[in-house]
Design brief:
61 residues; 54% helix
């Protein structure tokens, strides 16, 4: 998959293995970047990768 691809909310939930409420909490608090196209929320693939990487680095400390 390319880094510039956009993910839907269900795809992002599956990638992070979290529920809808948890994902929307990350979006609401801006810990996970997203954009809105019309009424649709999209999450860049690189934002998901960055989020995972950040938490892996924090866990390694």
């Amino acid at each position: 998959m390319r880094d510039d691809e956009l993910r839907t909310v269900p795809e992002a939930m599956a990638r992070l293995k979290i529920g809808r409420s948890a994902l929307y909490d990350l979006l609401r608090t801006r810990r996970l970047a997203s954009l809105t196209i019309g009424r649709a929320r999209r999450i860049p693939a690189h934002a998901l990768d960055d989020y995972v990487q950040l938490h892996l680095e924090e866990a390694a400390r």
